[in-house]
Design goal:
The structure holds two protein chains of two kinds. Chain A is of the alpha+beta class. Chain A has two domains: 75 residues, no CATH class; 284 residues, 7 Propeller (Methylamine Dehydrogenase, Chain H), CATH 2.130.10.10. In chain A, strands 1-28-27-26-25 form a five-stranded mixed beta sheet, covered by helices on one side. Chain A has a four-stranded antiparallel beta sheet with strand order 4-3-2-29, with no helix packed on it. A four-stranded antiparallel beta sheet of chain A has the order 5-6-7-8, with no helix packed on it. Chain A is globular and about 75 Å long. The N and C termini of chain A lie far apart (51 Å). By secondary structure, chain B is an all-alpha fold. In chain B, helix 8 packs across helix 9. Chain B is elongated. The N and C termini of chain B lie far apart (41 Å). Classes of the chains: A alpha+beta, B mainly alpha.
Chain lengths: 369, 162
């Protein structure tokens, strides 16, 4: 071995240790060991097998919904062994937006593409025609090709830009207030005092309304005439707000509880986080009324899928989840975990149908067509 | 290796710890971008692990993985060379000298500061252990060109490090 080879093999490239820490769990997930517990289960199956088989057969024969029983069994078994596999393509299609110091990246099934420089946060317009990105005190509208269309700035840092479903307005926070600006960069207007969670848009009979947090209040206002529609006091400062697809329920994620508000601001349901855990993120699905909640427990995170009265913990992740978003068709869920994006495919009855991971060049921001 | 082929966690862990540093370092030397290098090494590794069942057990794992990583890194470097970077800090404008000065290791830094045409053959030859003939195949270059680029790169390195 030459001296140069030895020195190159002993050296350490920038980012090598951090990259090792991120890649190691992914590699270990590829291992398919035979756990000792499985042997015990096998022994148990041997002992109780004939009885269980008889009961299952009786169930399939005697119940009119034998097929449902079978699917229920498979649904419950599937979440217990999620196997993260690195995706060569992008399940769920569309374009995932990630942002960070390395720049603003758009990842499609053909791989990532850097479209802009260092930005803080970013969000797609409804049809994925533009990206609203923040850079310190600046809000920038960028085309998917990376062309800067317009920008504005404030005295305080700008956070959480969110494009209205109509595409006509963008809501964002800056300096303790929520602002609305038209999609072409004009008519930048302060709406009200606000802080904390990202604004959540709702469309009702052609009117756009925006929900936001103001301290321990959740407020809904009309985006055109700025009329107050409701202001509901909650226990703690909301971390995340998300409307159901039909606009009838608002998910309010607080550190120690989750609340569902109806469209008039009335609390219709509350769920407390178990001791030792705290809620960090949540989102309604793009269709239906299923929703997702991420809870942190120490250094790990738990993904919960909630559908009706069923709540299923489907995934335990090593690491912090810093973003949650659904695919454009709503059939996949993306979780930002450090510089990776985990893609989870929810099934019926809050079950899990698949898990993939794709690399990311920054934090997960949004997913569009 | 046999444990990894059986899917045992200890075997996969050993394979990863043994081969990851070289895979990442080589990818970084070729593309000189941390995020891209991480993607390449990670994807290469996972592709190799995913295909272990089809792997010929008589052959060593290291060269196989290194070939996967090298091909991906070369493709990424070529793609980036033709791609128009847009933004405040285009990747193509990353100054090699500045990049190398931030490195604690002087040899790695000196190699990183070399131009593409010398740095990539040197990384392939002296870090990944490819022969000049194999490098010529990977880079789609005549073998003589590879040899002359290696020579010029080594001369530049010895001058830089002397």
């Amino acid at each position: 071995m030459s001296e140069l080879t030895r020195r190159l093999r002993e050296g350490r490239a920038p980012g090598e240790d951090a990259a090792f820490r991120r890649a190691h769990p992914l590699a270990m997930a590829m291992a398919r060991p035979v756990p000792p517990r499985r042997r015990r289960r096998r022994a148990l199956v041997r002992a109780l097998g004939p009885l269980a088989a008889a009961l299952i057969a009786a169930g399939l024969l005697l119940t009119t919904a034998g097929a449902d029983v079978r699917s229920w069994i498979s649904d419950r078994v599937a979440p217990s062994k999620p196997e993260p596999v690195r995706a060569e393509t992008l399940p769920g299609g569309g374009r995932i937006l990630t942002a960070g110091r390395d720049g603003l990246f758009v990842r499609t099934s053909r791989g990532p593409r850097r479209i802009f420089g260092d930005v803080g946060e970013a969000a797609w317009s409804p049809h994925g025609l533009f990206v609203a990105a923040t850079r310190g005190i600046e809000l920038i509208a960028v085309s998917p090709r990376g062309e800067r269309r317009w920008s504005l700035h404030h005295r305080a840092p700008i956070r959480h830009p969110r494009w209205a479903p109509t595409g006509y307005q963008i809501a964002y926070l800056s300096g303790g207030s929520i602002y609305l600006v038209d999609g072409d960069g004009s008519d930048d207007t302060r709406l009200a005092a606000a802080d904390g969670a990202a604004p959540a848009w709702r469309t009702a009979r052609g009117h756009s309304q925006v929900a936001y947090a103001d301290g321990r209040r959740v407020v809904l206002r009309d985006s055109i005439d700025h009329r107050l529609l409701f202001a509901t006091r909650v226990a703690r400062r909301p971390l995340a707000l998300s409307w159901s697809a039909d606009g009838r329920l608002l998910l309010v994620v607080e550190r120690d509880r989750v609340q569902l508000l109806d469209r008039f601001g009335t609390v219709v349901r509350t769920a407390r986080a178990p001791a030792g855990t705290r809620n960090v993120a949540g989102s309604f699905a793009r269709t239906g009324r299923a929703w997702t909640l991420v809870r942190a427990q120490g250094p790990s995170s738990r993904l919960m899928l909630v559908s009706g009265d069923e709540t299923v913990k489907v995934l335990q992740l090593a690491g912090r989840v810093d973003g949650v978003t659904y695919s454009p068709r709503g059939d996949w869920l993306a979780l930002g975990v450090g510089r990776s994006v985990w893609l989870v495919r929810p099934g019926a009855h809050a079950s899990l149908r698949g898990v993939r991971t794709v690399p990311a060049h920054g934090h997960l921001m949004d997913w569009a067509q | 290796m046999r444990a990894a082929l059986r899917g045992e966690a200890a075997g996969v862990d050993w394979l990863f710890r043994e081969h990851w540093p070289t895979a990442y370092r080589a990818a970084w030397l070729i593309v000189r971008d941390e995020a891209t290098a991480e993607d390449i090494a990670q994807e290469g590794f996972l592709a190799a692990l995913g295909a272990l069942e089809r792997f010929d057990r008589k052959r060593p794992f290291g060269p196989w993985l290194r070939t996967i990583v090298a091909r991906r890194a070369i493709d990424a470097a070529r793609a980036r060379a033709v791609r128009r970077e847009v933004g405040a800090e285009p990747l193509s404008a990353l100054p090699a000298r500045e990049l190398a000065e931030g490195l604690a290791d002087d040899v790695l830094g000196a190699v990183a500061a070399l131009p593409d045409e010398q740095r990539i053959p040197i990384a392939l030859r002296h870090l990944l252990g490819f022969t000049p003939g194999e490098i010529a195949d990977l880079l789609d270059l005549p073998r003589g060109t590879v040899n002359s680029r290696l020579r010029r790169g080594l001369d530049a390195l010895s001058e830089e490090l002397s």
